[in-house]
């Protein structure tokens, strides 16, 4: 049996996700952005919350932990490296650990940069990646706590996952990410096609999530920091890709 994912919106531009293990009925909220949005999704699906999987300590990802835990008595899993910043964690995990939801397993991958202890959850059987603010469609999260090299290393590890992995990220930033990406990688056909698709989805009021990792490998400039075109755009030909990654991140911050 499989993992079923319910996608909904929360707060202003956060995505909320319910992860449902069909074999056992166990259901996890991926992050806890907003209690009411999560309760609505539970009501709509008819599922009962048993777990919460936290990716990082930002308020728009943890705010509803206390309320949901009080209401459902659920287990809360989260990053060991941010345990001092997040109240209510029951189980601490780090890079290489496995978390189970009934018969479904998730591999934890450390993705430092947006926050130092940021983790993502990868489900290898159905190939679902819950990337929160480490990897967006056509972008990555702002580098609030990390430095470029470890952030680039983390992004590269995500790039090693299979092309047909479905990515579920933390925010609907795709359209603005596409604009920036086109400004620095204007001749990339895969990116041009993605941007067109994204614009038509958004114009139709539809979310751009989930997206295929393989498509993002060809179009997301942050996943292409070692491509010669991007080095050339910043005048960094032959330089360390981590330097190019830093230049792209800075370029996006000022876009
Ligand atoms: Zn965040
Ligand atoms: Fe966020």
Q: Descriptors for this entry?
A:
about 260 residues; single chain; alpha/beta; 9 helices; Metallo-beta-lactamase, Chain A; binds zinc ion; about 25% strand; 6-stranded mixed sheet
Provide the CATH superfamily. Answer: Ribonuclease Z/Hydroxyacylglutathione hydrolase-like
In the CATH hierarchy, the third-tier topology is known as Metallo-beta-lactamase, Chain A
Strand order of the largest sheet: 1-2-3-4-5-6
Low-confidence runs (pLDDT<50, min 5 residues)? none
Q: Topology of this protein?
A:
Blueprint: E1 3-10, E2 14-21, E3 27-30, H1 35-45, E4 51-53, H2 59-62, H3 65-72, E5 75-79, E6 91-93, E7 98-101, E8 104-110, E9 119-123, E10 128-132, H4 148-159, E11 166-169, H5 174-184, H6 189-203, E12 211-212, H7 213-219, H8 228-233, H9 241-253
Parallel strand pairs: 3-4, 4-5, 5-6, 10-11
Antiparallel strand pairs: 1-2, 2-3, 7-8, 8-9, 9-10, 11-12
Bound molecules: zinc ion and fe (iii) ion.
């Amino acid at each position: 049996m499989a993992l079923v994912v319910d996608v909904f919106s929360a707060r202003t531009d956060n995505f909320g996700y319910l992860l449902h293990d069909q074999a056992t009925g166990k259901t996890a909220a991926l992050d806890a952005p907003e209690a009411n949005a999560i309760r609505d999704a539970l009501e709509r699906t008819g599922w009962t919350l048993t777990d919460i999987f936290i990716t990082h300590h930002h308020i728009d990802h943890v705010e509803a932990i206390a309320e949901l835990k009080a209401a459902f008595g659920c287990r809360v899993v989260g990053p060991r490296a941010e345990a001092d910043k997040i109240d209510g964690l029951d189980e601490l995990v780090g890079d290489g650990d496995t978390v189970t939801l009934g018969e479904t397993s998730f591999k934890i991958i450390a993705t430092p940069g947006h926050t130092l202890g940021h983790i993502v959850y990868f489900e290898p059987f159905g190939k679902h990646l819950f990337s929160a603010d480490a990897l967006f469609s056509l972008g990555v999260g702002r580098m609030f706590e990390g430095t470029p090299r470890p952030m680039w290393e983390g992004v590269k590890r995500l790039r090693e996952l299979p092309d047909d992995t479905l990515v579920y990220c933390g925010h609907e930033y795709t359209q603005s990410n596409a604009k920036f990406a086109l400004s620095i990688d204007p001749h990339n056909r895969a990116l041009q096609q993605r941007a067109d698709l994204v614009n038509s989805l958004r114009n139709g009021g539809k979310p751009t999530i989930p997206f295929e990792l393989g498509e993002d490998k060809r179009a997301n400039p942050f996943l292409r920091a070692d491509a010669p075109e991007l080095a050339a755009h910043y005048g960094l030909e032959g330089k360390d890709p981590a330097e190019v990654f830093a230049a792209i991140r800075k370029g996006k911050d000022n876009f």
